[in-house]
Amino acid sequence: MSAPPAAHPWTRIAITGASSGLGAALALACARPGVVLHLSARNRDRLAATAAACREQGAAVQEQQLDVRHAGASRAWIESMPGLDLLIANAGISGGTGGATEPPAQIRAIFETNVTGVLNTALPALERMAGQPPRNGVRGRVAVISSVAAFVAAPGAAAYCASKSAIQRWAEATDATERHRGLRIHAVCPGYIRTPMTSVNAFPMPFMLEPEDAARRTLDGIRRGRTRIAYPWPTYAMARVAGALPLGLRAAVAARLPSKPVAAS
After folding, report:
1. 160, 192, 231, 236: which is the annotated catalytic residue?
2. Sheet containing 140-145: which strands, arranged edge to edge?
3. What's the CATH architecture for 12-255?
4. Beta bridge partners of 36
5. 88 within 8 A of 15, measured Cβ to Cβ
6. Greatest CA separation found in the chain?
7. Is 43 exposed, middle or buried (0-12, 13-18, 19+ CB in 10 A)?
8. Alpha-helical regions (H) of 97-232
């Protein structure tokens, strides 16, 4: 059984992709009296269900149907908030090669959502936070949901791994330069989480986490001020080892494993 989440210090929180999986679990873990949650997702009905559950826990909730690929709509959503302590850029999609060439449309969709979509909310949030008075020395925080896949170029999920690597490296490098403005950026790199995104995978997924456990670990890492929040450690260690293997050996190993389905989800 997972430990209950530790109290977090933020009262104004925005989460993208909050309709299911980790995003919904993060919203519920943050919900409590005195907290204002700004939740967005593409699926209006599932988002409404998450918002209702958060209201039952005492949070004030503003919900917005949003496709983060749309820069103007994403900026308008961020700018509509009176103040913001924490943005969790969680919205993302995945898709594999199915053992063949990854379709160009899928590659574009993954990068547009997982990279451009993250920046479409993170950059306006940083601009907004920079003008806020600091709380405990920090004006605001942005957490981007990457993956342990950022550390290994898996041939069966090329676009997904590359997109998660891009935002992980952007977040960590930007955190180092934005601290002088009182801003913090966190790269969250989870292992396998039991969500609709992973339910289609036919390959082994060791050390699978429940969304609630992943949400607790994520928020605890942000609260502790960690730039890179990678968990669970065995999956993170395996990804680092796999990423260090010679490319030919990595390709040979990948050829023996079942491929992730092609369709992005």
Report:
1. 160
2. 60-65, 36-41, 12-15, 86-89, 140-145, 183-190, 228-231
3. 3-Layer(aba) Sandwich (3.40)
4. 12, 60
5. yes
6. 54
7. middle
8. 104-111, 117-130, 158-178, 211-223
Residue with tokens 């390709």: 251
Which pTM was predicted?
0.90
And the tokens for 124?
């306006």
Strand, helix or coil for residue 32: coil
* pLDDT one digit per residue (tens) for the chain, 265 residues: 445 556 789 999 999 999 999 999 999 999 999 999 999 999 999 999 999 999 999 999 999 999 999 999 999 999 999 999 999 999 999 876 656 788 899 999 999 999 999 999 999 999 999 999 998 889 999 999 999 999 988 777 889 999 999 999 999 999 999 999 999 999 999 998 886 665 555 556 667 899 999 999 999 999 999 999 999 998 888 889 888 878 777 677 666 655 656 654 3
Residue 236 is among the residues annotated as catalytic for this protein: no
Distance, CA of 256 to CA of 189 (rounded, Å):
25
Other C-beta atoms closer than 10 Å to the C-beta of 49 total 13
